[in-house]
Structures are given as C-alpha cells and as structure tokens.
Design brief:
The complex is a heterodimer. By secondary structure, chain A is an alpha+beta fold. Chain A has 3 domains: 49 residues, Uridine Diphospho-n-acetylenolpyruvylglucosamine Reductase, domain 2; 110 residues, Uridine Diphospho-n-acetylenolpyruvylglucosamine Reductase, domain 3; 107 residues, CO dehydrogenase flavoprotein, C-terminal domain (Enolase-like, domain 1), CATH 3.30.390. Helices cover 31% and strands 25% of the residues of chain A. In chain A, the strands form 4 sheets. Chain A has a 5-stranded antiparallel beta sheet with strand order 4-5-10-6-7, covered by helices on one side. Chain A has a 4-stranded antiparallel beta sheet with strand order 11-12-13-14. The radius of gyration of chain A is 19 Å and the shape is globular. Chain A starts with a strand and ends with a helix. The mean pLDDT of chain A is 95. Chain B is of the alpha+beta class. Chain B has 2 domains: 76 residues, Ubiquitin-like (UB roll) (Roll); 84 residues, DNA polymerase, domain 1 (Orthogonal Bundle). In chain B, helix 2 crosses helix 5. Classes of the chains: A alpha+beta, B alpha+beta. At the A-B interface, helix 2 and helix 6 of A face strand 4, helix 3 and helix 4 of B.
Chain lengths: 287, 203
C-alpha cells in the first residue's frame, strides 16, 4: 500500500476543511472497500480521513416521527440486528445481514455502502424501496438528498467530493407493510450477488420493487395497480406487471458472475418470489 | 503486501505515528506507518504471527482478530484505526490454565488439516460463541462464512464449534479430556502486562 497521511478529525468542520484543502483525500468509515482499493492501487490518495472520531457522527439508530434515523457510522451488524428495522423495514435488515461475512458486517457501514454506489450493493435496493433520504454536510451547510437522486452509475453519485453523509432517514410507512430482500449468488455464504431485489408491499396496495446488479445503478419502480399486492393475483398477472418493472434492467455482458440472459431470467423468478413473500408478510400477523 | 517504503508519488512519506492499544490483555505500543494495517503491526511490529496474512481483501478470514469485542479482518483495518482498542488474537485465546474450549474441541475433532486457516477459524468461532453461546448448525455456518479452509475441512470445524459450545454450556457433562475449569470468566492469573501473550487470556 502506498503511503498516505492519516487524519482523524474530531469534528465535521475539521473533516470538511481537510476535504476542501485536499481534493484527492478519501473518506474512511468502515474501510472494507477503501482499504482494498488503496492496497491494489485502484485508489490513490495522499490523505485518508477517518470519520470515527468526528463528534457529530455516530452509530445510532433513533426513532423519528414514525421513521428511523441511522447514523453515518452504523455498521451492517447493527442494521441487521435492530428489532425496529427487522419489524418495519425487514428488507433492509435482510440485505444488511448478507453483506460480506460477519467480519465485514462488523466494519462496513450503511453510509459507506451507499457512497461506494456498487450496483450489486445489498442494502441499496431496500433503501430505495423505503424512500431513504440522506442528510449531507458540505461547504454550504446541510442538505437532504433522496437516495433515488443520489445514484448515477457504478461508483458514481451526485454527492460532491466535499460532502459527507451524516445520516440516513427511513421515512414512516403508513399502515401495515411487508418487505423482503432476495438475491442470487453463485454460492451460499460470502459472495457478491448477480441479482438483488427488495420488495415492499404496503397496506394501500402500492408495491415498491427496487433491484440491483442488473445495470449501472439500482432502480426503483412502484406498482400502483394493486395487482402485485393482491393475494388472489395469478403469477401470470404479476409477471405482466413485473416485466414492466424490470424493463429498464440492462445487465452488462462483461461480468464474470453471470450472463445477462441468466440475470434477466432470474430477475423474473426472484421478482415473483419477492412479491409473494412481501405480500404474505404484510398480511401476516404483526407485519 | 509490500512494506510500503519510499515509493510514494504524492510527496514526502508521513512520519511514523505512535500507536497504543491493548493486545491480549496487555498494553502495547509501537511506532507505526499510517498506511500499515493492524495485521502488519500485529505480525511485524508486535511479533504475533499467529494471525495469518493471506488474501488481503477480506475474503478468507485468515487474519481474523477480535477488535473491541467483534471479529474483524485485520487486513482491512488500519493500525491507527485501532488506537486505544482492545484486540484479541489467536495468541490470546488460551487461558492461563489451559486451552480454550474451542482449541480443545478442534484438537478432538481433527479440525486442523494444513492448519493455516485455523487461527482465523478459532478467533471467528470465539467471537461467534461470545455473541451466540449455543448456536445452531446454520448459525455456525453463517458465523464462519468469512473463513475459508482450502483443505475443505469444514465439516470437522463446524462439529468442533458445536461441540465446544456444548462443553461450555454443560461443562459437567464433558467426557472429553479433563479440564481444570471452564474457560469462561476472567483468569485469576498473573499480571497480564508481565507475561507473554500466549499465556494471557482475552479480556
């Protein structure tokens, strides 16, 4: 690994000042992606800014008006274990629970998973389905960014180099809700996914389907026909809707993990399963 | 990984930084380079070579240590991130009065083949049993999913972890070799700062 200066600012103001002074500085939270990049040379940075001593940042998960606010330093282990997330935002808990291995989940942060913007990220489909909103601090103060507006392409977001995510908000969900995260991997256990889907079925009959690993960024589609959420709907009727939902999927041919044809075929199979699981959870006891 | 000396293209290399942390119950200090990982510092600066260097991308788990109570891949933690932290390595697993229940179970089940992955497997298993004292088989499989064994000795490893959990939960029922005591709780041993790492129990 090439040498770099290591900064541990104690405040957001200090961290932002370092970012302003050093355009190539990189932010370190959990480090499970960054340190790999620094070591293999794909990331060259003269300065690494560790956020773990910034006093305004923490690993908290606190209740807001009907929703939850997740601190920028919250690791996957906390997300997967939190009873409130498991109950109301189940797909997010399930997605966090399959990131890497225990060792990775103990370090990797939700905010880092978002900012690295991997199309195969396990938490971003669920966050899109739940309408997550980022609070970001930059040189001009604080702003809020809907997660759907943050993703551009693999590794690219609309967040500025001189901005730091401080919080991720999960808005309130009205009424009963059921959700799930499903994915296809080559083997059980520690692997990257070739298809990732999060589905949330709401009491209103609205169904939100977000999917990743099949294009440059994860995508969110919302079905308001009520057909996906209808327990009596046939698979054929649901597939008709899902084919629209997945119309924008564009898996690349260059991946070694799975061919585009396979990913598209699995998208329909897993899509159906995800919808039915989420629907059943919504209609089950205490979803 | 290279030692990272004198090949930076981004200006003068930063000076070494003082690092203080607790390793296997013993306060340790070292002067470290800011781009060196906890793995490098444990092995090279502190001489604790039980923690293995292998894939260096967080996939194999050979470098697993317990950092402030949680298992991590030491290859993905910068040493300076661990300042002030409590680290348990494989050298800290055994209590002063004998092997950890997991170590004994690994021996009894022949869980080590070539042995290279075993320190990481043991440390990951120790963290697992701290979090889930009586795990199901599926929980053991998931808890050790980040530890690869290229001899493919998974079956014996899983059996050993389940057996160790059983021995810890019901020490009286143990019919394996006699143990002086269950490995739980702090050791009543000598001052941790004055004995070699291998004899110091985890905190």
């Amino acid at each position: 690994m090439r040498a770099f200066a290591f900064e541990q600012p104690g405040s957001l103001a200090e961290a932002l000042a370092i970012l302003r002074a050093e355009p190539d500085a990189r932010i370190l939270a959990g480090g499970t992606d960054l340190i790999i990049g620094l070591r293999d040379g794909s990331i060259l940075s003269p300065t690494v800014i560790d956020l773990k001593r910034v006093r305004e940042l923490d690993a908290s998960i606190v209740e807001t008006v009907g929703g939850l606010a997740i601190g920028a330093l919250t690791a996957m282990t906390e997300i997967a274990a939190d009873p409130r997330i498991r109950a109301r935002y189940t797909a997010l808990a399930e997605g966090a629970a399959v990131v890497g291995s225990v060792q990775i989940r103990n370090r990797a942060t939700l905010a880092g998973n978002i900012c690295n913007a991997s199309p195969a990220a396990d938490t971003t489909p669920a966050l899109l389905a739940f309408g997550a909103v980022l609070t970001v601090h930059g040189p001009d103060g604080s702003r809020q960014v809907a997660l759907d507006d943050a993703f551009v392409s693999s590794g690219v977001t609309t967040l500025g180099h001189d901005e730091i995510v401080v919080r991720i908000d999960l808005p309130a969900i009205p009424g009963r809700v059921g959700s799930t995260h499903v994915r296809r991997t080559r083997r059980r256990g520690h692997d990257l996914a070739s298809v990732t889907i999060a589905c949330a079925v709401l009491e209103s009959g609205e169904t939100r389907v977000a999917f990743g690993s099949v294009g440059p960024r994860p995508l969110l589609r919302v079905d308001t026909t009520g057909i996906l959420a209808d327990p009596s709907a046939t698979d054929a009727a649901r597939l008709e809707i899902l084919d629209d939902v997945f119309a924008a999927a564009a898996p690349s041919a260059g991946s070694m993990r799975a061919s585009p044809e396979y990913r598209l075929a699995m998208l329909r199979v897993l899509g159906l399963r995800a919808v039915e699981t989420a629907r059943a959870r919504r209609d089950g006891a205490a979803a | 990984m290279t030692s990272g000396t004198a090949h930076t293209s981004v200006g003068a290399e930063p000076p070494d930084s003082p690092l203080e942390l607790t390793v296997n119950g013993r306060p340790r200090r070292a002067l470290v380079r800011s781009h060196h990982t906890l793995l490098e510092v444990l092995r090279t600066d502190l001489g604790l070579t039980g923690t293995k260097e292998c894939c260096l991308v967080g996939e194999c788990g050979a470098c697993t240590v317990i950092l402030d109570g949680r298992s991590v891949d030491a290859c993905l933690v910068l040493a300076l991130e661990a300042a002030g932290s409590d680290v348990v390595t494989i050298e800290g697993l055994a209590a002063a009065d004998g092997l950890d229940a997991l170590q004994q179970a690994f021996l009894d089940h022949g869980a080590a083949q070539c042995g290279f992955c075993i320190p990481g497997q043991l440390v990951a298993a120790r963290a697992l049993l701290q979090a889930i004292p009586e795990p199901s088989r599926a929980e053991v499989e998931d808890g050790l999913a980040g530890n690869l064994c290229r001899c493919a000795g998974y079956e014996q490893i899983i059996e050993a972890v389940l057996d160790a959990a059983e021995r810890q939960a019901r020490p009286a029922a143990v019919h394996a070799p006699e143990r002086a005591s269950a490995p739980k709780g702090p050791p009543a041993g000598p001052d941790p700062a004055s004995v070699p790492d291998a004899r110091v129990a985890p905190q």
